[in-house]
Write a structure and sequence with these properties.
about 70 residues, alpha+beta, 3-stranded antiparallel beta sheet, 1 helix, 3 strands, about 20% strand
Length: about 70
């Protein structure tokens, strides 16, 4: 999966990074490499399903979709 990320220099130093296609998915890092590493982890957590999100009822299926 390819996602565009936006890296902005922070006033305090380092970088803030966010993913426009994933609202609320934001991170930061002291260097560009750190910021990219941190946003990768944030994206993985953002996309990780949480069992409580599923309200399973009779006849409902849950499947994985590889994108």
């Amino acid at each position: 999966m390819n996602l565009k990320v936006v890296l902005e220099p922070s006033d305090e130093g380092g970088y803030t990074v966010y993913v426009p296609s994933l609202p609320g998915c934001i991170s930061e890092g002291d260097t560009l490499d750190d910021a990219l590493k941190n946003i990768r982890e944030a994206v993985e957590l953002y996309l990780e399903p949480v069992e409580d999100d599923w309200m399973l009822r009779e006849g409902v299926e849950v499947r994985e979709l590889v994108v």
